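Supplementary notes for students who missed Thursday's class. We covered one full example, reproduced here. Read the sequence, then the structure, then the short commentary at the end.
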Amino acid sequence: MLKQYSTIFATLMVNAADLENCLYADRLDDPVQPCGSETLERISGLLVLAKKMADELLLDASIPLMERIAAKVSEAYPAEDAYRDISDLRSRIQDQLKSRYFYFVPPARLGYYRDKQLFGQSMEIAFPTALDDIEDAGKCLALGQGTACVMHLMRVMEAGLKALAKELGIPYAPSWEAYLTQIQTKIGLPRKRKSAIWKRNEPFFRDLSGDLMTVKQAWRNPTMHIVRRYPVEEAEEIFRAVRRFMQHLEPRIKGPASSRRA
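Structure (token representation):
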């Protein structure tokens, strides 16, 4: 799940430091004087924000202290104790966050991570089995994992290949090679043995078959057989190319009437 933890952390730390300074001044005036209602309200608000971060980032060492502070808010809470507790809480959160690592998603690629219909809404009907891989390819691209992105894209292309084979009346085959061989055989039949619909669509099928053969040689085989890795810039170009291919194929694919998404 993508979260803007930087915003939460910055707000939490600024509020904690500001509250800590106020409590420091209060304790200088009278350490045993209970905190006023306004200060207690600020402490409660800080705890809500801190608890949210602690729960999501598993900051287990901070949570017991938050619970003890929350219990004191409903009682007479001396400024000295409040200052010490808030200071301790801020330090604990900072210390635990040193062991938490976060990915940075460049703003230009944020859509790849966040958007659900990266190839368009029509993919849900034509290629429902490809939706997870389309989404995962986008996430890998956003996180700078170029080779992983291309691997998912090849699975997307396989869904397109199988859909094309189905349109051509080609039965299940165990590999890309077997599908492409049958598609080429179908295309190579004498013209007199082809139906009027086939003749009308033949240029389209020839183009797609050529595209699939190019993808197989240029991207699929090197990716699946560990021949090379893909930098994120090249993976992004492949992402666009696969999207164009699937969008070109989609109008000719009847596809199932429902998809995996509710």
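Commentary. Residues 5-97 form one domain. Residues 196-224 form the longest helix (29 residues). If anything here is unclear, bring it to office hours.
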